[in-house]
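Final report, Chapter 2: Outcomes

The project's central promise was a pipeline that accepts a single protein chain and returns its three-dimensional structure in a standardized token representation, suitable for archiving and comparison. That pipeline is now operational. To close this chapter, we reproduce one record exactly as it appears in the project archive, with the input sequence first and the structure output second.
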Amino acid sequence: MLLILLLAILWDLLLSEPPIYIHPVVWTGKISEKLIRPYKG
């Protein structure tokens, strides 16, 4: 999952997407992170 998240971030950087746009994979990573570690951050 972490590898996919990093690839999504690199993909966005390479395409020079505006900061407002967040890759769906990034959102999936954030959601799964909250589910796995709900009491951190």
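Archive annotation: The chain has two helices and no strands.
This record, like all others produced under the grant, will remain available to the consortium after the project formally closes.
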